């Protein structure tokens, strides 16, 4: 018996159909189960590269403060480092140093509890944060933290850049690059953030206009740089572009007008998006992305 030949789908057409399952710039994938299924490329399961890249971060400063050296070496945060320095457990070239503000160079012999330290390689992780995870490195009262999601990502100790509250999802950067982190979170640099907001009721055009023009909250004035309906047919979904990093700022804006935010998803932060990254997963930034972040205004 002659076997029927299977009709082959052209590879290009098949891949185009799959690429349409993720629509750019959106806070949600078109396939509601996309967070549970691996992305596919052709007939093989797509696995993102997880080997840690070596980043070129430009020339290093000849001298840095001792607390920053300890932080960059992965010992602790700068604030904690000051306490260790004052306690006399840090030595530089064989001498105990207790004076805050002391500067050291990469050539110095810096030791913590008699163990020699070396500056860590910089690492940059992008996480698509799920809800119910607290953005903190150490909170004994938190059931789940974002650090649980990246604990096996790298040997370096990384920190979240800024905060997303427990119920907010989306783009979160983690790094051990303290200088870049400070630049990305300082108010004067005005880094853009875009949120997809789901409300309990339709947003009135008059309220939208007021948010764009500016309103007064308990901690000062605030306005959205851009605000629009995500879908003209569904006025409960709103896209908001804002630069402020004040605590719960997006939720408080809508609470001012008696709207309840049912869901809040950050889809953009300082040029980074979560496109193609399932909820709860992380990836390393590319060198191009790191260069883009470091080229931001100082």
Task: Characterize the structure shown.
By secondary structure, this protein is α+β, with helices and mostly antiparallel strands. It has 3 domains: 64-116, Structural Genomics Hypothetical 15.5 Kd Protein In mrcA-pckA Intergenic Region, Chain A (Roll), CATH 3.10.290; 124-187 and 273-294, Alpha-Beta Plaits (2-Layer Sandwich); 192-269, Pseudouridine synthase, CATH 3.30.2350.10. It is built from 8 helices and 19 strands. It has helices at 11-19, 66-72, 78-87, 146-149, 178-185, 205-213, 249-255, 287-294; strands at residues 40-41, 44-45, 64-65, 90-92, 95-96, 103-104, 110-112, 115-116, 124-129, 159-160, 169-175, 193-199, 215-217, 220-222, 226-231, 234-242, 261-269, 272-273, 282-284. Strands 9, 10, 11, 12, 15, 16, 17, 18 and 19 form a 9-stranded mixed sheet that branches. Helix 2 (66-72) crosses helix 3. The radius of gyration is 23 Å and the shape is elongated.
| Fold-level CATH name of the largest domain | Alpha-Beta Plaits
Order of helices and strands: HEEEHHEEEEEEHEEHEHEEEEHEEEH
Annotation, overall tally of beta strands: 19
Uncertain segments are 11-46
Top CATH class of the largest domain: Alpha Beta
Shape: elongated
In the CATH hierarchy, what is the superfamily of the largest domain?
Pseudouridine synthase I, catalytic domain, N-terminal subdomain
Query: Mean of residue pLDDT?
Result: 82
By CATH, the architecture of the largest domain is named: 2-Layer Sandwich
Secondary structure: helix percent: 10-25%
Q: Helical stretch count? A: 8
Oligomer: single chain
Question: For the terminal residues, how far apart are their CA atoms?
Answer: 74 Å
Please outline the major beta sheet.
9 strands, mixed
Derived from helix and strand composition plus strand pairing, the structural class reads alpha+beta
Approximately how much beta-strand content do the residues carry? 25-35%
**How many whole angstroms does the radius of gyration measure?**
23 Å
Overall number of structural domains: 3
């Amino acid at each position: 018996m002659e076997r029927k030949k299977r009709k082959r789908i052209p590879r290009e057409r098949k891949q185009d159909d799959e690429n349409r399952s993720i629509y750019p710039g959106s806070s949600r994938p078109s396939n509601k189960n996309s967070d549970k299924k691996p992305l596919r490329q052709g007939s093989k399961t797509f696995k993102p590269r997880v080997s840690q890249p070596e980043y070129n971060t430009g020339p290093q400063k000849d001298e840095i403060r001792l607390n920053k050296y300890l932080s960059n070496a992965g010992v602790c945060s700068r604030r904690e480092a000051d306490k260790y320095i004052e306690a006399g457990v840090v030595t530089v070239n064989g001498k105990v140093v207790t004076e805050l503000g002391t500067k050291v160079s990469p050539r110095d012999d810096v030791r913590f509890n008699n163990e020699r330290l070396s500056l860590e390689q910089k690492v940059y992780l992008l996480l698509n944060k799920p809800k119910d995870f607290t953005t903190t490195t150490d909170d004994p009262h938190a059931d789940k933290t974002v650090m649980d999601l990246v604990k096996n990502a790298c040997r370096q100790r990384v920190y979240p850049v800024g905060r997303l509250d427990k119920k907010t999802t989306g783009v979160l950067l983690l790094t051990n690059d303290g200088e870049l982190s400070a630049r990305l979170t300082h108010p004067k640099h005005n880094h853009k953030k875009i949120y997809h907001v789901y409300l309990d009721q339709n947003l009135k055009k008059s309220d939208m206009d007021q948010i764009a023009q500016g309103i007064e909250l308990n901690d000062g004035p605030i306005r959205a740089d851009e605000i629009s309906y995500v879908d003209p047919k569904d006025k409960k979904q709103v896209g908001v572009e804002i630069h402020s990093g004040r605590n719960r700022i997006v939720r408080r804006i809508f609470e001012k007008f008696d709207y309840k935010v049912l869901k809040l998803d950050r889809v953009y932060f300082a040029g980074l998006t979560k496109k193609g990254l399932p909820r709860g997963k992380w990836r390393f930034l590319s060198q191009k992305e790191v260069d883009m972040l470091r080229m931001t205004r100082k």
